[in-house]
Design brief:
The protein has 26 helices and three strands. By secondary structure, it is mainly α. Helix 16 runs antiparallel to helix 17 and helix 17 runs parallel beside helix 19. The N terminus and C terminus are likely disordered.
């Protein structure tokens, strides 16, 4: 499924509201400092809009929740962002499960990468090149600048312009995007193309500099562009990668990227283990059946496979239920290199699946001692503890992690489950409240907190904490939301019955 009509409607509505707010008094007041784009879309507006769009993307079910892939993408992305950011932007990197070769930047520093692009990259420098390009779109505020360039348009056309830009970024078809732009501008599309080309060249320039400063090969961006351009003959428009639809690449642009990269020292580096593991996990998940994934990896002789290919083979076995075959590979991998967290996770999971419980728990605990508070490790361990009925230990382990590392919504749902299974109902409801807040549902957040306040034997500290949280959330709600919540607020007895 693609991010299409539902997301696009949310984007356009949010854009319209923001544009209307910016023009409510009939004029554009420039701030004392900052870019003129702030007059149309301030950084705070960008953050709000970004969160709204991100909530819609998460609701689509396409965001990859694989902690190993997410940790790697955020590690590389933030390493690059550190060399382009003036401190005014925060970044969140995420992966979309989609075979299309695409990446996109949203307002508020949200950077999305499709699994198809990860697979299409031939090395880590190329993937880093794409991330650097998208980071530059955010730091240079290209979305706000696009709106500013069209500020003389009406409120609706400005909103549609933003909707078109973001729809293209999120993967809407090229014809749909061009059609929206035509309606929004009512002028030649060439004007928007020229502006986009300027953005793309600037993002290339900033991104290549960031690549070099972050220790990646600055040629990675240009080589990936070359790969894409060779894959997309003009006569086969339907097969053009989505990245080229939203980031037009010409021979001139490739040449300029190569020339710019040549001004920096060439970097020769091996791909990180994290890159290989992320790429192979995306590859295994792409197959329609576990058996197809197994067949893919068994087509090459085991003795000739490197450790990343062997790891891919092991997780293919794992997903096909061939745990003994997977265990043998994970044992070899951890024995050869115990510094790779993914190898420990795979070994412990297969041991637990084979009901070798003592060995499995020993592997888990040993890995936690080696890599305390590592997100993929603790999340996977917590999931296995819940399967084994050790909910209290899972809750304590997850709570220690999530008190120290910003969690994703799905990780908050996991700790809510652990608390519920451990009999800590009030805390479970509190976590579910936080989950709804993270996904943009303020009313749902308050509803779960109200349920938590009705839990018998609630201690005074919990009561104060929950009530304070409700008061905090209410400050961000509209008058209509507050009225609606008051109308829909159930009686204490009705709430208690609902939640049993």
């Amino acid at each position: 499924m693609r991010l299409t009509s539902k997301l696009l409607s949310s984007i356009c509505l949010a854009a319209l509201l923001l544009a209307a707010d910016a023009r409510a008094d009939g004029e554009i007041r420039l701030p004392d400092m900052g870019s003129p784009a702030d007059a149309i879309l301030s950084r705070n507006d960008e953050a709000i809009l970004g969160r709204q769009i991100m909530a819609s993307i998460r609701a689509s079910g396409q965001v990859i929740e694989d902690p190993l892939i997410n940790e790697y993408i955020n590690e590389v992305g933030k390493r690059i962002a550190a060399h382009t950011n003036d401190g005014g932007h925060s970044f969140t990197f995420f992966v979309i499960e989609d075979p299309a070769i695409n990446a996109f930047a949203l307002p508020g520093g949200y950077i999305g990468i499709h699994t198809g692009l990860i697979e299409a990259s031939r090395n880590e420098n190329e993937l880093a090149g794409v991330l650097a390009h998208e980071v530059a779109h955010v730091t240079q505020r290209h979305i706000a600048r696009a709106i500013h360039a069209n500020q003389r348009q009406s409120i609706v056309s400005t909103a549609l312009m933003l909707g078109a830009i973001l729809a293209g970024a999120a993967g809407a078809g090229g014809e749909a995007v061009e059609g929206m732009i035509g309606v929004a501008q009512g002028t030649a599309v060439q004007q928007r193309i020229n502006f986009t080309r300027s953005n793309e060249y600037e993002a290339d320039r900033i991104g290549i500099a960031a690549l070099a400063e972050a220790g990646f090969d600055p040629h990675g961006m240009a080589t990936f562009f070359e790969v894409l351009s060779r894959q997309s003959p003009v006569s086969l428009e339907a097969r053009v990668p989505e990245f080229l639809r939203t980031h037009p690449v010409t021979t001139t642009r490739i040449s300029e990227a190569r020339s710019r990269a040549a001004t920096y020292p060439r970097v020769v580096r091996d791909d990180s283990v994290g890159y290989g593991i992320s790429r192979v996990r995306a590859l295994v998940a792409r197959f329609d059946t576990p058996e197809a994934a197994v067949a893919h990896f068994e087509s090459r002789d085991y003795a000739r496979q490197d450790r990343i290919e062997r790891y891919g083979r092991a997780i293919a076995y794992q997903r096909a239920g061939l745990h003994r075959d997977a265990k043998r590979i994970f044992e070899d991998l951890t024995e050869d290199d115990e510094s790779v967290i993914a190898f420990h996770i795979g070994l412990a999971q297969t041991q637990i699946a084979l009901e070798e419980l003592d060995s499995g728990l020993e592997t888990w605990d040993g890995a936690v001692a080696l890599f305390p508070r590592n997100v993929p490790l603790i999340i996977a361990y917590g999931e296995d503890l819940l399967k084994l009925g050790q909910a209290q230990k899972a809750h304590e382990l997850l709570l220690d992690l999530l008190n120290n590392v910003p969690p994703t919504p799905e990780q908050v749902r996991l700790i809510a489950r652990a608390a519920a299974d451990a009999g800590e109902r009030a805390e479970s409801l509190y976590y579910m409240s936080e989950y709804h807040l993270m996904t943009g549902n303020l009313e749902g957040g308050i509803s779960f907190l109200r349920q938590a306040l009705l839990v018998p034997d609630l201690d005074e500290i919990q009561r104060i904490r929950f009530e304070a949280r409700i008061d905090f959330i209410r400050e961000f709600m509209t008058e209509e939301q507050l009225r609606r919540m008051q109308r829909n607020r159930p009686s204490n007895s009705a709430t208690a019955r609902t939640d049993r």
